[in-house]
Amino acid sequence: MSEKRLLDASSGAPVKRHMGLKASRTAANTGIYCLLIIISVVWLIPFVCIVLQSFRVESTWQEGYVIPKQWGLDNYRNLFQTDFPRWYVNTFISALFTAVFQTIIVLCMSYTLSRFRFKMRKGLMRFMLILSMFPGMLSMIILYRVLSDLGLTQANSVPGLILVYVASSGMGYYVSKGFFDTIPKSLDEAARVDGATRFQVLKKIILPLSKPIVIYTVLTAFMGPWGDFVFARYISFGTSSGMNVAVGLYNWLNKDQIAKSYTMFCAGGVLVAIPVTVLFMCLQKYYVEGVTGGAVKG
Amino acid sequence: MSTNSDLEYLKLNHWQKIGYRIARFFVGIPKALGRFFVGIWRAVSTFFQLLGRELADIVGTFVHGDWKTRLSFVVMGFGNIARGQVLRGILFFIFEVVFIGYMVLTGGYWLSMLPSLGKVGPTEVYDEILDTYTTTYNDNSFKILLYGVLTIFFIIAFIYTWRQNVKQNKLAEKILASGKPLRSGKEDLRSLVDDQFHKTLLALPMTGILLFTVLPIVFMILVAFTNYDGTHNGYSNNLFTWVGLDNFNTMLNWSVSKGSGSQSYAATFGEVLTWTLIWAFFATFTNYFLGMFVAMAINKKGIKFKKVWRTVLVLTIAIPQFISLLYVSKMFAKNGILNGFLMSMGWIQQALPFWEDPTWARITVIIINIWIGIPYLMLITTGILMNIPADLYESARIDGANAWQQYSKITLPYMLFVTGPYLLTSFTGNMNNFNVIYLLTGGAPTNPAASGAAGTVGYTDLLITWLFKITTGPDSQYYLASVVGILVFVVVALISLIVYNVLPSIKNEEDFQ
Amino acid sequence: MASVKLTDVKKVYDNHVTSVHDFNLEIKDKEFVVFVGPSGCGKSTTLRMIAGLEDITEGTIEIDGVVVNDLQPKDRDIAMVFQNYALYPHMTVYDNIAFSLRLQKMPEDTIYEKVTNAAEILGITEYLTRKPRALSGGQRQRVAIGRAMVRNSKVFLMDEPLSNLDAKLRNQMRAEIILLRQKLDTTFIYVTHDQTEAMTLGDRIVIMRDGIIEQVGTPMEVFEKPHNTFVAEFIGAPKMNMIKTELHLIDGHYYVSPFGAKIEVDGEKGQELKQARVKPGDVTLGVRPEHMLLCDQPSEATIPCKLEVNEMMGSELHLHLVTADETRLIVRVPTIELSETRRAQLTYGSELYITFTGKVMHFFNPETGKNLIYHP
After folding, report:
1. Residue A126 and residue A136: Cα distance in Å, rounded?
2. Nearest residue of A to residue C88 by CA position?
3. Which of A44, A179, B150, C225 lies at 20 to 30 Å from A250 by C-alpha?
4. Which residues constitute the domain of residue B14?
């Protein structure tokens, strides 16, 4: 009798507790699902709104509602009556060149700092750390005047902008140096003992192993110019044909412009976002790797 | 600390421990500062020792060297050529010729004008033939300052090269004396892709940094000691000149007023700095903890569609910030979608003053920044969370830790440890987060008391947006912008220095490895 | 196929830590030399200086009479096997082995011949098209050796090549390295922290500590005539027992008195002490665990001990003993020498008596640790 009760107790209680555990986990998971759905909605709303408003025909003003009363492609058509295509091309060209040259420079810098132990190495890194504490914007004043002396501002701002983006990009070596640091040094050493020069080590051993970081660097370098506002505004200096998309579209939201160009801004925004977003989403994996590694390495 | 006091520490209760640590933090500050100054002192003294040794070596080389070496003191590269290293010698010689040519032709002029930054401004001359006044531009303060600095760079480079020239002569003599051959030009070139490959790799990036970062920074630091602004642009209206510490006095002295009715620059600076620090603190830590929370929610066992949730968030990173920020800024406007929605639902009668009221604006900015920042932090923390060894949690669970204890005793310390340096850079990055503030509010709402001759200042303005506004403001007071820039540097450097020296987590790198 | 000569080689790192002090050594052609010592003793640094992977702060290194201080690794004609193998992950096994030959611009058919030949010797032919990722530790090790083999270089350097393998595989590879050495017939320099590897592989062993050479000699020399207590304890496992005691000279005979016992230093050892004119007094007496004898009965020449731990190793027993004054000793007894009943008695706390003969004694200066006979 007592033995049977004992058995019951020992078989019953765990089952009950097990169910409790499961139930509480389900409850927690339901909570998390709700939260994630709310988050997703909040994060997506602006993008949904901007797309919807870009198709609105009846009014070019902001308005307090989202869903257009009259749908149409008018805003997109109107974009081509403005300087928008020019801005688009400007941005695209500077993004392309920046991606190429910045990648080369960043890789040179980070590979050197990761692999060579020369006398000034520590000092150089400290020096660049200190330099990065100065607000970069200050440099714009002088760079603007130097570039304008060279004729690389206003209408000719694209080469000037590329120069500005690329020239100092060596300072952003942290992430890719962190990556190179994870490639064992003994690979370099083995190759050197095998008869390779330092250049051959880079070409034949390191670069083939660095695909993720090369893609990451190209991607971030390519995306930079699409979002740059300060330098582009300074260097184009009010000349419409020298602006990039950020500066051009920003001006459409001025107090005196917004009434007639708000929906056009939305349409322009959509056109800018599509290629960049598609590219980013395709290469997302590499971006995530780079960002994570960079943060851990500091 | 001795083992004994370590054991004493273990006996303290929780609050005493916290108190002890805080006390140690503050006790640590003067020590860290002390170390810093001792470090500077040591650096200075080693510099002079080094200088002395270099000078002694130069004299020694001259006294003990042969005639080729001695001639090289004047004709750079002569020794190299005479000893068969033609390539090196020619490069040395060309450098010397270029340097002397430059100094004679223009460098001397820039250098001589540097102390005054130009003597004769633009003059109007009556032209009899044309019967009109024509303007002649004379000295150009901007160019004098710029090329003056460049000339000084060039002189330093020349001294360094000259020193190398002397050193190589000494070395060549020594190598030849030991009976070995010198490196040929061909070997020199080959070494540039081998043992000297780092020089080849660094040449391009370092030139870029030197010309486009170092030079502008040196120039702008110097501008802070001049009166360079829109009305003294250095060539077409007035020359500018050195004013000593006047600008720092203007910016930092409470009793110097900006003009009638408005407060001093010092007061404005204090207000903007305070808001900048508050902003940086909240922007960094709200993102950090909420991002970590979201990452943990997505990564929790049993949650499905992990990839979908992540992709939705990552979309914010993919879309260029200026689009999302400008658009969101308009969503929150008085006549924007949000207010429109709330009013149409009848929940509010009047539009909420998201951008009109100082406190509302500040809070809104921080909240929108969470929207911008969480995806990054989610990505970063996801990677690190996955790296926490699972057996830490297993052993904690066996020891009887609940979910909160697991988080606070394992996850959080691990995260803080690993991301410590990232938090610091993120904090200083937020202090200089131009895009978010400028594109969202442009600094608005305006702070009437703080606005003055140098343009408007708003309640959400950071030091960096204020700096931008000064340069684009009515008089383009570049000298004030430079002062603000230097002060931003000082603040950032101080914070970094204190954090690096006092925070143990950054120093004890191996704790968690 | 070359000699290597190191003269006053010194390595000082940037942080002013001296890793190697005045290293002098001449390695003969076709000799197999092993650098051995605890971690941080500078053995790897020395090897890497020979390879050209570290700068030499002072001194010279010659390979075949040519000073190589300023030569890049690629110009030194050396081959090296790394501790973590350092296989190029993006290349197949074949390409890994062929890498150095391709850099020499050798024709592809010669390369094919050499690579397949090396693969044959090492038994990795079937893996030639695989990437290193798909190989086991032992196979990777073979590829690394193959890569070094095909180069036919003057000197063959190996930096702890077996330390990433498990114990069984390590024994197997050790035997293979001995075979390989006979086939290659070139100069080997081998770095390890494992004294067994050093003893089994080396023609000569260089024992290092804190950047200093403690002793250079054949395996037999360092085992039988250790220059100091460090070498004595480092070579042999379990390590040599060190007993603080006194040396007495009575009637022309030397005696030691460990823990109150009185043991004569008889035979050759006594003669050697006399020849070295060792004075009586305090000494550190070293006796290897395998040279300690268990006695059934106490006598004047036995040391009474208590058994603390009895480790059954299969073919032998390791007995951890403690004497009356808390000194710990280890005795190694072949299992076969003890009857089953005797073994059953060896439990915690049981009383034992041990002794040893004069022949197995080592005498060290208690202050300097130097061997009183061989290295005063």
Report:
1. 17
2. A187
3. A44
4. 3-51
B320 in Cβ contact with A249 (< 8 Å): no
Nearest CA in chain B to A130: B493
- Whose CA is closest to C34, among C207, C178, C173? C207
The radius of gyration of chain C from alpha carbons, rounded to an integer in Å, stands at: 25
Give the H or E element holding residue C364.
strand C362-364
Task: Identify which has the larger pLDDT, C349 or B13.
Answer: C349
CA separation, residue C152 to residues A122, A256, C47, C174 (Å): 39, 80, 19, 21
d(CA C59, CA C50): 12
User: Please, which pLDDT band fits residue A26 given cuts at 50, 70 and 90?
Assistant: confident
Q: From C185, C183, C121, C178, select the one nearest C154 (Cα to Cα).
A: C185
| C297 within some domain | no
Q: Kindly state whether residues B235 and B176 are assigned to the same domain.
A: yes
Is residue A109 over pLDDT 90? yes
Establish if A194 touches chain C: CB-CB under 8 angstroms.
yes
Q: What is the pTM of this model?
A: 0.85
Q: How many CB atoms lie within 10 A of CB C106?
A: 15
Domain contains C38: yes
How sure is the predictor about C111, in pLDDT bands with cuts at 50, 70 and 90?
very high
Nearest to B487, CA basis, from B471, B461, B463: B463
For helices B265-299 and B412-431, angle between their N-to-C axes, nearest 10 degrees = 140
CATH code where residue B444 lies: 1.10.3720.10
Q: Which of C211, C243, C210, C215 is nearest to C227 (CA)?
A: C215
Q: How many domains does chain C have?
A: 3
* B405 and B373 in a common domain: yes
pLDDT in tens, B297-309: 888 878 888 888 8
Query: Using alpha carbons only, how large is chain B's radius of gyration in Å?
Result: 31
Number of structural domains (chain B) is: 3
Does residue B433 lie within any of the structural domains? yes
Do C224 and C243 fall within a single domain? no
Average pLDDT over residues B110-120: 86
Domain's final residue, options C186, C215, C233:
C233
Q: Which of residues 358-377 of B touch A (CB under 8 A)?
A: 371, 375-376
Which residues 194-233 of B have a C-beta within 8 angstroms of C?
Answer: 194-195
Sequence-ordered alpha helix ranges (H) in C186-295: 195-201, 219-224, 229-234, 267-275
Strands C32-36 and C187-192 come out as: parallel
